[in-house]
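Hi R.,

Here's the input for the copper (II) ion complex you asked about:
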Amino acid sequence: MQRNTMVTILIVLILVLGGGAVWYLSQQNQTSTLEDTTESTNKQTETPSNPQSTDQDQSQSAGQQVIMKNSAFVPAKLTIKKGTTVTWTNEDTIKHNVVASDPSNTGGLPAANPLLEKGSTYSFTFNEVGSFNYLCMPHASFMKGTIEVTE
Ligand SMILES: [Cu+2]
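And here is the predicted structure with copper (II) ion in place:
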């Protein structure tokens, strides 16, 4: 009878120790997976440093700006590389637009375009090499500009 209780105590001890060892090991695994997730979140927070380089690429390909101010295009003549997008921004309270002035030499620029309110922009990408004159339809006699496109 005493020997039996000794055996059961031993078995219980083994079970408790074994269980404890399993619990300990599982705790170890949990902490290691926790470290893994913190590492991966660290990597995720590190990634925003890369878009800075793509921002630079975007600014290089963002193109050129022409302002419509005091009923004039500024600069009146702009030289760009083929494939560059030109963006016109109207800073006047009166409306302006951008249309090709020579129907035989437009560079693809439309002969008609909607009028821009103050703060509105119009963008066009020049894919032909040449010198292209444009004007503002309502002020065609004096509001003129030229885009020179090089290879
Ligand atoms: Cu105008």
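One thing worth noting: Residues 71, 96, 136, 138-139, 143 surround copper (II) ion (CB under 6 Å).

Cheers,
M.
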